[in-house]
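Hi V.,

Quick status before I head out on leave. The structure for the redesign project is tokenized and pasted below; the design run finished overnight.
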């Protein structure tokens, strides 16, 4: 199987471009309901992996309040409450911002970035969207007595434990260990494996899996930000858990066991919510609030003249 056209770019009634990709939907019992493209070959899900990484840390004994556990799963926007949360995680382990090994960056959120520039700040490690995950990794290392200077190395005990949990939840061996944008190990799985892992979190009734799912449900703004499409989708789907990743990856699961994962080959972030909203609609979720999360108008002269729309 190969990726297929799953969305098209329409301007003034003319199709001017396409997005190729793959999508999988799981039934409540975990079987495949339908799929488009290649959903069995290995992909790099990028930040969609974060809830699974956080799960491994909770299994290792990391004990954070729900909002900070959600932040450990986050690609946060760099808003003030995100940065304060990262500092709280670090402080709980007796660490400061200097322990973070995230590359210096600006906040993802436009308003937060502009506020930082007006305040005369420079790029810093805590503003990088993965700093919540890294702070949790550091706190786990302190808890277990592991070296904090090398926590990003693939053979570090923390990363070995994360890889074991990841393979267990996806139900697939890790074929590729790459380096993510934040410098931490990036583990591969198929889109089916990714959906399977999110399903396991969403249906959990106890234990660390349940803690991760409930943290995401209770504090979705900590997982993304106050102005993000991920927050809009989770708000529109009570009980859902979800996580977006770079290269246009997305995974969503419901407590009834249904789950979805998608990726486009060009990695365009604009098409990611469009595809997921269409996938949910194809699976029978007809809700105007959900549909609204997948609307991406194209402008001409400052007014809408077209859209990006799914083709399935």
């Amino acid at each position: 199987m190969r990726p297929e056209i799953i969305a098209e770019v329409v301007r003034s009634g003319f199709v001017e471009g396409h997005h190729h990709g793959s999508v999988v939907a799981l039934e409540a019992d975990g079987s495949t309901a339908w799929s488009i493209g290649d959903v069995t070959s290995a992909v790099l899900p990028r930040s969609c992996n974060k809830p699974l990484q956080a799960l491994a840390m909770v299994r290792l004994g990391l004990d954070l309040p729900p909002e900070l556990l959600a932040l450990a799963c986050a690609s946060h926007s760099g808003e003030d409450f995100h940065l304060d949360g990262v500092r709280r995680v670090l402080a709980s382990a007796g660490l400061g911002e200097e322990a973070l090994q995230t590359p210096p960056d600006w906040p993802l959120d436009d308003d937060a970035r502009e506020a930082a520039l007006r305040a005369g700040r420079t790029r810093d490690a805590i503003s990088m969207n993965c700093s919540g995950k890294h702070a949790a990794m550091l706190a786990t290392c302190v808890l277990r007595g592991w070296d904090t200077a090398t926590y990003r190395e693939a053979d570090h005990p923390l990363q070995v434990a994360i890889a074991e949990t990841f393979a267990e939840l996806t139900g697939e061996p890790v074929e590729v260990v790459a380096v993510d944008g934040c410098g931490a190990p990036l583990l591969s799985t198929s889109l089916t494996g990714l959906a399977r892992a999110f399903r396991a979190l969403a249906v959990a009734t106890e234990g660390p899996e349940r803690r991760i799912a409930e943290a995401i449900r209770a504090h979705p703004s900590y997982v993304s930000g106050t102005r993000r499409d991920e927050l809009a989708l989770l708000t529109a789907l009570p009980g859902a858990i979800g996580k977006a990743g770079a290269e246009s990856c997305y995974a969503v699961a419901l407590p009834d066991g249904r789950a979805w994962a998608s990726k486009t080959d060009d990695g365009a972030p604009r098409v990611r919510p469009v595809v997921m909203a269409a996938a949910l609609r194809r699976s029978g979720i007809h809700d105007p609030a959900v549909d609204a999360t997948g609307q991406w108008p194209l402008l001409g002269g400052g007014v809408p003249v077209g859209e990006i729309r799914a083709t399935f």
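Above is the designed sequence. The chain has twelve helices and ten strands.

G. will cover questions while I'm gone.

Best,
W.
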